[in-house]
Amino acid sequence: MTAEPTRGTGDDRPEDRGVRDGRPEDPDVRDDRPEESGGAWTRLPLMQPATPSAAAPVEPGPHRTPSVRTGRSAAPLPGRVRTAPGPAVGTGRAGGRTVAPSPLDPGASQDPHGIHRRLREEFPLTYDPLLRAWVLSRYADVATALTDARFTHGHRPGDPPCVRAHVDVDTAALRSVTERTAYVLARRIAERPQADLVADFCHWLPAGTVAAAVGVPYRDMMRLVRGRAAGALAGECGTQIAVREKALASFVGNVLSDPDQVAALRDAPAALVARAWTESLRRDPPVQIAVRRTAAEVPVSGGTVPAGASVALLVGSAGRDPERFREPDRFDPLRDDPGQLTYGPGFCPAVLLAGIEAEYALRALFAEMPRLRLADGFRPTPAGLITRAPRTLIVRPRG
């Protein structure tokens, strides 16, 4: 994983700058290609239009149809460019081509769900020249790509390569430092008339937990915790701090947005909080797009991905696939079809810490601020292209 950038002012955070010069300005995006750099979980390929290659077909002319390689013969590339049906007589509209939308289209940072829905329904396999990658958007395909050995270069925290790298983690000690850090942060804002839980709580809890766990002094926490201290605790996945911060912001926002969830989770057992955490990771994953590279041709919905190709996995789209989840847009910790793709199922300190932080975040906030609620008229608004979460959570600590 890459080292996380330190946070500046609200005006200079990378995630606040949107897209410039054709590249999404996101703290987890780098200029190196994932197949060359290794840490592909939150990286994307270069954002210039693709050059011709076996993995990237030449942009078709008016009388040419792009194709995808299969083991038998060339077939039309599903979803890349399709001829739309002609208009009804008398409409006055000319016919034309239907082109697959891109996850980088204007407005995607604020509301990607319409784009995701169209990709799932009409373009389950498409080549995106902005991403320089094939795009998968359905749950079945994304889940396969995250676990199938034919998709290489990168892993999630909790996947088998990660699990084998971690030993001798003191879970009780991590719970203790997380609990202490969460209550300290909650008490600091409990008496304020208004607070921003992203800036004053969610930003500090993941970093503070790691700092306390490795003995970094509080005054040096943000300077050291995203590098040496984090690596000392969690190895390659130690720099997941920014991802955990975004996941925590979405989780707290999802809970506070529904008074029924506040009541249900205020004094809930750890198992119910864990279900709510999983549900938040499904509905609002902090990592929206992951990148892999194919080592061989792989059949997927709509066709076959060529060997040696970069593949963009729309984790955010997969989590809201109605073929996998009933009422996928609804936050429902008690759903009987749970699941999430942000983290793998195995042991990893980053995964463990994320869940512990979610549990003690709720316990500390509700214990220190029994009347905590969102400010009048405020609703959490997630934003981001590659990573995504609410940028602010304005609350009234005293009700």
Structural notes for this entry:
By secondary structure, the chain is an alpha+beta fold. It contains 13 helices and 18 strands. The protein has a 5-stranded mixed beta sheet with strand order 7-8-14-11-9, with helices on both faces. A 3-stranded antiparallel beta sheet has the order 10-18-15. Strands 1-2 form a two-stranded antiparallel sheet. Helix 5 crosses helix 7 and helix 5 runs parallel beside helix 13. The relative contact order is 0.18. The N terminus is likely disordered.
Rg from Cα: 22 Å
Helix content: 25-40%
Main β-sheet, spatial strand arrangement: 7-8-14-11-9
Basic shape: globular
Q: How many angstroms does the end-to-end distance come to?
A: 40 Å
Strand content: 5-15%
Category by helix and strand content:
alpha+beta
Describe the sheet with the most strands: 5 strands, mixed
Helices and strands, with pairings:
Layout: E1 19-20, E2 23-24, H1 34-37, E3 67-68, E4 75-76, E5 81-83, E6 97-99, H2 113-122, E7 125-128, E8 133-136, H3 139-147, E9 151-152, H4 160-163, H5 171-189, E10 195-196, H6 197-202, H7 204-214, H8 221-234, H9 241-256, H10 259-265, H11 270-283, E11 289-294, E12 298-300, E13 303-305, E14 310-314, H12 315-318, H13 349-368, E15 373-374, E16 382-383, E17 389-390, E18 394-396
Parallel strand pairs: 8-14
Antiparallel strand pairs: 1-2, 3-4, 5-6, 7-8, 9-11, 10-18, 11-14, 12-13, 15-18, 16-17
Helix pairs in contact: 5-7, 5-13, 7-8, 7-9, 9-11, 9-13
Q: How would you sum up this structure in a few lines?
A:
The longest helix has 20 residues, at 349-368. This protein has 13 helices and 18 strands.
